[in-house]
Amino acid sequence: MSALAITPTFLDDFSRLTPEVQLNTLAAMRAYQTGDLADLESVADAADPRVRVVAIDPDWSGVVVPEPRPGRPEPSEDAQYRLITVRPRDEALRYARGLRADTPVDTGAAARVEPPTPTGPPELASALNAPFDQWQLTLHPDQHRITEAHYKGATQITGGPGTGKTVIALHRAAHLAELDAAAHPEDTRESVLLTTYNRALAQSLADRLDQLLPDPTVRGRVRVVTIDSLARSVVQAHSSVAPRMIGKDELARRWRAVAVADGLPFSGRFLVDEWEQVILAQGLDLLPAYIRCERSGRVQHLAPEHRRQVWETVRRYVGAMRVEGLWAYPQLAAEATRLLAADGPLFRHAVVDEAQDLHPTQWRMLRAAVPEGEDDLFIVGDPHQRVSDNRVSLASLGINVRGRGHRLRVSYRVTQEILDWSMPILGRRAALGMDDNADTLAGYRSLLRGPAPVVRGCADRAEELAALGDWVRVWLEAGVRPADIAVAGRNHWIVRGIAKELEARGVATAPLEGTGRAEAVRVGTLHRLKGQEFRCVALIGVSDHLLPPKAAIEAADGDQVALEHAVQQERTLLFVACTRARDALYVSHVGRPSRLITEQW
Predict the structure, then answer these.
(1) Annotated binding-site residue? 165
(2) Helix 19-33 crosses helix 461-477 at what angle (to 10 degrees)?
(3) Which end of the chain offers a freer environment for a tag, N or C, measured as fewer CB atoms within 10 Å?
(4) pLDDT digits over 252-266, tens only?
C-alpha cells in the first residue's frame, strides 16, 4: 500500500490554510494511508507524468510527488508519496502541470527547514526564531525596567495571558539574588523565595532559573518551592511527624456524610467553604468574631443563630481531623504562620507567581516569612486566571501595594488569534483584583499573529484520538520539538488515552509535571498546564458531557451559588489551558462540544 507523507516545504502552506481545509487535509492523508481513498489522480498535459493530485474536498486539491527510489524511476504500487502543497482545485492543477518530481526539497532537508513561527514586531524577531527554551527566558525589552527597579515596599504586577508575568518573576528573582550576593557576600543562605501555586510550574521555574543564574553561589540564594511545600517544611521542622494532607474535595465528602448523620441543614461543601473562605481566611478564633464578621463573597445569608450552629459543627469536625492527624492546606499555612511569628522571618525577599490563587492564610505566612521593607514582596498574577476559590484583599492582610503596581496590557507570548478565540470562554467582563479594584481585560491585545485555533468534532473517542495523532504528527514534521508540544485533557482517564495513542504511534510522551525524556510530548491534565508555555497545545475531550465535569457539578450539593462558582472555575481553567499555546491551538470533542465553548459561537 502506498504511503502519503509531508514534505518539509509544505508546512508553511499548511499553517496558512483555514482550519476546515487543514482538517480535510489530515482526513485525506489518513484515508489514503488506510486504503479508503481513491487512487491519486494523474494530471493531463503534465510536464512530469509522475506528479499526481489528491482531492482534499470538492474545492481543494493537494499536489503530490513520489519519493525518488534508485532503480525504480516510475511509481509502483508501494510507492512513497509526499504532499507538497494544498491549493484551490484549479490552482493546484496549474501548479502540478508545470512541476517536475525532482524539484521538491529532498527528505534530508527536513532538518534545515525552520518550523513556521508567529509573526511579531522587529524587536522580537530574533527571539521568536530562537530555540523555544531560550524564548521562555525572553523578556520584552520594555519590561527590564520592571524587573530591575528598586521598590520601597511590596509591588504588584498584573496582566492577561502572554504578557510575560512569569518571565518577569524569573528575572526579578535572579536580579534580587545577584543584588543579595553583592550586598551579603559572607551570608550564603537562601535569602530569596520564588514561590507559586503548583509543582509543575515550580519545577519549570527552577529549571529556567538554573539557566539565568549559572553561578551556583548566586543560584543557591534562591529557594524555588510551592506555597504548600513551604508551609509543610515550616511545620515539619517543629514536629517529628510529617503532616498528612487532605484535599478539599475529599474533606467535603467526609463532612457531607457526618452532616447528614447529624441531621444538619448544611452541605459538606458549604461547611468546608465556610471554614476555609471565612473562618480561616479572616483568622477568626472566637465565636463572637464569627457572628460579627462580613462574609464577603459568600452569597448565602447566615443568621446569627445559624452561624452559632455552623461554628460548633466546624469546630467539632476540625477537632476530629486533629485526632486523625489530618491537615487542610490553608490550615497548614495558618499553623506555619504561627510558628514563623515565634521563630522570625526566613527570607529577605519573596517573588510570588500565580499570586491570584493563594489563600489568605498563605499570604499571612508569606508576610511572616519576609520582613516588611524595601523590595520585600514582588507579587505577580492575573485575577482572570484564578482557578481556586480564594479571594484576597492584600491591604486587609497588611500588604500595601498602592502606588507600586503595574498593569500589563500587551501580550507577546500568545497570538491575537488564540486570544480572540479564548477570551469569550471566561464569560465575564471583570474580576476583583487583590488590590480591591475591579480588573478588566479592556485594551488587552497581542503583538503576535498566527493561525486561528482549530476545533475538531469527532464521532467517537477512537476517531478523536486518531485525529489527535494526525495533528501531532503535523506539528512534529513541521520541526516543532516534542517537548514544545503539550496535550491535555480534563481528567486522568482522558490523559491515559492520549498517552497510549501517541506512544503507539512511536511518539514519546512525558508527564506535564515531569522533567524526564526531554524529547517527548508533554501530556497531562488541564490543571497541570497552569503557568506553563508551549509552542503548540492540543486539548482533548472538550465535550459537553465532560466539561464541566459531572463531579464538579455534584460537589455543589444543589447549592446554586456553589454551582455557578464551580462552572466559572471550569471556564477559567479552560481559558488558562488555551492560552498556554504560543503558536497553535487544537481543540477536539466527541458529540456535542462543551457549552463553555459553544456559548461563544
Answers:
(1) yes
(2) 100
(3) C
(4) 999 999 888 888 888
